[in-house]
Design brief:
alpha/beta; about 15% strand; about 300 residues; globular; single chain
């Protein structure tokens, strides 16, 4: 959501096979401004740094908005709302894994002039692993927060509602309205499931998630995630990964336990160069305690 973006960031649009994808990048001061004795710098000439948000009701690029300004002086920041989320197109369809693998690849090809460094979280981080395996030429490095296909090692992360309920016409809309389109439910979900400490949740965060959830046809991507249509076992892929990778994991992450993370990392230790447990954080440490993730990323990105 543009109204929730940090100073100096605006939105641009590219067109994918499934519709328009909005992304946020440096457009104004203090980032797009001349250095001493130089013309205004073209931020697109900087190395690309791509931030991919998690899924779930109200998800959008806002999730990374407390982190990426710290890298705006040295990188071309790219923070898209993925198809079906935020301000991007919301085609009415049964979303599948291939929809996201293809549109993320299309986005990278259209916006990046050189291999990209990706920072991604949760299910989208698992998509990044799969994409980096089949199109390694697009990637320079991966920094992944709690990467999970939500069916890793065949264990499943557990659906919150029975499929018979989610797939019932009208009832599915009622569930979405009740669970994602009202402020109390959004606040409760973020506090109870995504954050380790509820006091870290701000009103701005609640409003950003609520605004995204209330976009027309937003329920279709959210319900595909809730049904498990986008789940897969990332442990079957991770050994094929060749792109240098670092994994961060909130020690108190729900749905995807840190033991799962260590088990995944141990499948490919030569490529997964580091595994860092972030104390006292849930599945979104970059939103909950962004200063910590900024510091960790700076260690690797310089």
């Amino acid at each position: 959501m543009l109204q929730f973006q940090p100073p100096g960031f605006g939105h641009k649009i590219i067109h994918t096979s499934l519709g328009a994808m909005v992304y946020y990048t440096q457009t104004n001061a203090p980032w797009a401004m001349p250095a001493v004795g130089k013309a205004i710098a073209d931020t697109e000439d900087l190395p690309p740094l791509l931030f991919l948000h998690n899924f779930g009701g109200g998800a959008s690029a806002y999730e990374w908005s407390k982190v990426y300004p710290a890298f705006a002086s040295n990188y071309h920041i790219l923070a898209p709302d993925l198809i079906g989320w935020g301000e991007s197109a919301h085609p009415v369809r049964d979303y599948k894994i291939r929809d996201y693998l293809s549109t993320i690849a299309e986005f990278i090809i259209q916006t990046c002039r050189q291999p990209v460094t990706v920072v991604a979280s949760s299910l989208t981080a698992a998509f990044a692993i799969r994409l980096a395996i089949v199109q390694p030429n697009l990637f320079k490095a991966l920094f992944l927060v709690c990467p999970s296909g939500f069916d890793d090692f065949g264990e499943g992360a557990g659906r919150r509602l029975p499929l018979s309920v989610i797939n019932t016409p009208l009832l599915d809309s009622f569930i979405y309205i009740l669970g994602a389109e009202n402020e109390i439910a959004v606040r409760n979900f973020l506090q109870s499931f995504l954050f380790a400490k509820s006091q870290r949740l701000s009103q701005e965060m609640v409003e950003a998630y609520l605004t995204s959830a209330q976009q027309p046809n937003a329920k279709f991507a959210a319900l595909a995630f809730l049904r498990g249509d986008l789940y897969f076992d990332v442990s079957l892929y991770i050994q094929q990964l060749t792109i240098p990778t670092v994994i961060f994991w909130g020690e108190k992450a729900q749905f995807t336990n840190i033991k799962l993370g260590r088990r995944l990392a141990n499948l490919n230790p030569s490529v997964i160069q580091d595994f860092y447990a972030i104390a006292d954080a849930g599945i979104l440490p970059h939103l909950e305690i962004p200063e910590v993730l900024i510091g960790l990323l700076q260690r690797y990105l310089g």
